[in-house]
Amino acid sequence: YDHAKTAFDALHAGDALAKEIVANYLEYVACGLTNLINIFQPEIVCIGGGVSKQGETLLAPIQAYVDAEDYARNNTERTRIVCAELFNDAGIVGAAMLGKQDA
């Protein structure tokens, strides 16, 4: 059962409580990502799982928060935040590929 899908479906249907819940969720995710970006300065952060199917509804608010809070906001090179191309299957495919690596 995908709880994120339920919340985003309700948001898209205009539910006021869902709007508040999703906004809080996105702020928490963005805060965590900002902390990771400030520490490690990765080139890219990839969000997977079922929630990644939300696309720009997910990415735009997170990117706005990160843009305002990360230490590198004045740098020309910024961390890109994207959704996993494999969405919810990203983790399982990644785990399967680990078994194919040479030891």
How is this structure best described in words?
The chain has 103 residues and is mainly alpha-helical. The protein has four helices and two strands. It has helices spanning 3-12, 16-40, 56-69, 90-98; strands spanning 44-47, 80-83. A two-stranded parallel ribbon has the order 1-2. Helix 3 links the parallel strand 1 and strand 2. Helix 1 packs across helix 2. The longest helix has 25 residues, at 16-40. The termini are far apart. The mean pLDDT is 90.
List low-pLDDT spans. none
Oligomer: single chain
Helix content: 55-70%
Distance between the termini: 36 Å
Count of individual helical segments: 4
* Mean pLDDT level: 90
Radius of gyration: 15 Å
- Numbering strands along the chain, what is their spatial order in the largest sheet? 1-2
Order of helices and strands: HHEHEH
Q: How many β-strands, per DSSP?
A: 2
Helix and strand content put the structural class at mainly alpha
- Biggest β-sheet, characterized? 2 strands, parallel
Instruction: Give the overall shape.
Output: flat
Measured by DSSP, the beta-strand proportion falls in: 5-15%
